[in-house]
Design goal:
With 337 residues, the chain is an all-alpha fold. It has a single domain, classed as ABC transporter involved in vitamin B12 uptake, BtuC, CATH 1.10.3470. The strands form two sheets. Strands 1-4 form a two-stranded antiparallel ribbon. It has a two-stranded antiparallel sheet with strand order 2-3. A hairpin with a 2-residue loop joins β2 and β3. The chain is globular, with a radius of gyration of 21 Å.
């Protein structure tokens, strides 16, 4: 307990935080200068799962909702971009606003009637919606049926094709930085604090005037848009997209990263995604038995670190140590007076 407290105190220092951010940023920016293609590919994969974890964290970590179909959010963005580029010949950058809009509209259509549900019921709805997306994509000609859409052209960025490995890496690194900024701004805003109240005690939040259905829907839409945006970039990076991506296994992987890193903790999403990809590479030769290993890991995390591997932090709505000390001094003064 003392070690955990000292670790939280050390990581809570602003100088430590800025030093850590600077070291990680320098490492991330300079990685392509000395790494080979394999390492850059693994690093890109980690960045992609960071994007998905950060988006899913808004829904699961901030709002406390249970989403078992996050891969469907990625698919909506990927298919929107792929269809507009392949069928209608749109420029990639022009497809991004449409991808964001499509993700938001579908999230509203799914969220409005279902977000009044709690716990297991919401989990079943999101899982069922993910399966609907997969089956619809498999049976429509516009989505390429079971084989999906292939031959998606790579956009040109500053005169360099997006198909270049180091360009793909840097674009996804910039996206991760943007997603981190959005996540932190959300958490520190009034909206983020309302989500925190709601996650801790929904009935108490409602009694304090928080519009619970509205805030749930907003969190669901924001998380879905982040997933759709990541899907758009994923489609042009891979050059193709098929319904085989929209599986419960993929959604479980994303949820595993959120739980592993620590729900509601932005640094935990980055650490969880990195650890997940590293373990995937280590156990690559094991094949499908990796799911068993990840399952055992998740059980161990739930037993020994139920709050996730990133050190826990005081909820934002609780008073700080200084505020508690001032309150205690005022209480003593009034008591003696």
């Amino acid at each position: 307990m003392k070690q955990s407290t000292s670790l939280r105190a050390f990581l809570g220092k602003r100088s430590t935080q800025w030093t850590g951010i600077l070291v990680v940023l320098i490492f991330a920016v300079t990685l392509p200068l000395y790494a080979n293609i394999y390492v850059i590919g693994v690093a890109w994969n980690a960045l992609f799962y960071m994007l998905l974890a950060l988006g899913c964290n808004v829904i699961v970590g901030y709002a406390g909702l249970c989403d078992l179909g996050y891969s469907s959010k990625v698919a909506i963005g990927a298919y929107t971009t792929a269809i507009l580029m392949k069928t209608f010949g749109w420029n990639f950058w022009a497809t991004l606003p449409v991808s964001i809009l499509a993700s938001a509209i579908i999230a509203c259509l799914v969220g409005m009637p279902t977000l009044r549900l709690r716990g297991d019921y919401l989990a079943i709805v999101t899982l069922g919606f993910s399966e609907i997306i997969r089956l619809v994509a498999r049976n429509l000609n516009v989505t390429g049926s079971a084989s999906g859409i292939s031959g998606i052209k790579s956009p040109v960025i500053f005169g360099v094709k997006f198909s270049t490995p180091w360009m793909q890496y840097f674009i996804f690194l910039i996206l991760v930085i943007i997603f981190i900024f959005v996540s932190l701004r959300l958490k520190r805003s009034r909206f983020g604090r309302a989500l925190e109240y709601m996650r801790e005690d929904e009935d108490a939040a409602r009694a304090m005037g928080v519009n619970v259905p509205r805030f749930k829907l907003l969190a669901f839409v924001i998380g879905s848009v982040m997933g759709g945006l990541a899907g758009s970039f994923y489609a042009v990076k891979m050059g193709s997209f098929s319904p085989s991506y929209v599986t419960f296994t993929e959604s479980a992987y994303i949820l595993l990263i959120v739980v592993l890193g620590g729900m509601g903790k932005t640094p935990g999403m980055l650490l969880g995604a990195t650890l997940f990809i590293v373990l995937q590479e280590i156990f690559r030769n094991v094949g499908n038995s990796r799911m068993l290993i990840f399952g055992i890991l998740l059980v161990l995390i739930m037993i020994f670190r139920p709050q996730g591997i990133w050190p826990d932090k005081r909820p934002s709505f609780l008073p700080s140590r200084r505020e508690r000390k001032q309150l205690s001094e005022r209480t003593e003064t009034h008591g003696t007076g």
